[in-house]
Amino acid sequence: LVSALAFNGPAPMARSASRSAVNMGFESELGVQPPLGFLDPLGLLKDADQTRFDSLRSIEIKHGRVAQLAVLGHIVTSAGVRLPGDLATGLPFASVPAGLAALDVVPTSGLLQIIAFCGFLEFAIMKSVPGTGNEFPGDFRNGYLDFGWDTFTDAQKMQKRAVELNNGRAAQMGILGLMVHEKIDGNPYIINSLLGAPVPFNQ
User: Fold this and answer.
1) Contact predicate 37/23, CB 8 Å
2) How far apart are the C-alpha atoms of 182 and 15, rounded to whole Å?
3) 5, 41 in Cβ contact below 8 A?
4) Exposed, middle or buried by CB within 10 Å (0-12, 13-18, 19+), for 168?
5) Where would I find the H helices in 25-153?
6) Alpha-carbon torsion 14, 17, 22, 25, what sign?
7) DSSP label at 125?
8) pLDDT (mean) for 179-193
9) In the chain, which ranges are continuous DSSP H helix?
10) CA separation for the pair 71, 36 (Å, rounded)
C-alpha cells in the first residue's frame, strides 16, 4: 500500500535543487495527474534512478491487482456466493464467513496452502522475464499472453495502463477500508448504511 503513495501529488517548492532535479524526470510519468500531481511524502524516490522508480511502480501495480481481486472477492462473498462442496473435511464453503472472519475458521493447512500458492505466483508467474518483449513495469506477458494488447495504439495503451493504475490505487484504499470497518463495528459496508441501504454482513 505504501508504494501507491509514491506517485501522485505536487512536489514541494522547498526541495533542494539536487532532489528536484532527480524527481523532475518522474513528474511526467504515468499516474501523475490532477488533482494531486506528483507526491512522494515518504521520500521513496529521493535520489532514485529510473531502475528504482520502475521497481516501485511494478510493486504498486502488483499490489493494485491483488487489491482489486480482494475487493471483488469481498463483495462476492458478502453477497452470499460460495463455491460448492467442502473447503476441508467437515467444513463446507457455505459455512465460511466473508471478510477477515474467514481466517478464524479456515484450517492452518488451508492458510499454508494459500501462502504457498501466492509464493508460487510471486516467484514463478508474476514476474517480468527480460528479453520477452515486455513493454513496461508490471507487464508480465513474457511472450505468452497478449489478449490483443499489440493491436492497440500507443495512446490506447497509455489510457488502459492509467485506468489499471487508478483502479488499483482505489482498490488498495477500498480493501483497507473494508477491513478496518469490519474490525471496528462488524460493518464493512458502512457507506451503504449511511445511504439507507445497509448490507447484511455475515448474518
Assistant:
1) no
2) 40
3) yes
4) buried
5) 50-78, 108-120
6) positive
7) I
8) 93
9) 17-24, 50-78, 108-120, 154-185, 190-194
10) 24
C-alpha span between 19 and 162 (Å, rounded): 26
15, 40 Cβ separation under 8 angstroms: no
Q: Average pLDDT, stretch 104-126?
A: 93
Q: For all residues of the chain together, what is the average pLDDT? A: 86
User: Cα separations (Å) of 19 from 16, 24, 53, 89?
Assistant: 5, 8, 14, 58
CB hemisphere CA count around 132 (13 angstroms): 14
**Residue 3 in contact with residue 60, Cβ under 8 Å?**
yes
Residue 70 C-alpha cell reads as: 480482494
The C-alpha cell 471478510 sits at 99
pLDDT digit string (tens) for 17-29? 444 444 557 888 9
Please give the C-alpha separations between residue 173 and each of 20, 36, 178, in angstroms, as whole numbers. Answer: 28, 16, 9
For residue 23, give the nearest of 12, 34, 31 by alpha carbon.
12
Query: Cell triple for residue 3?
Result: 508504494
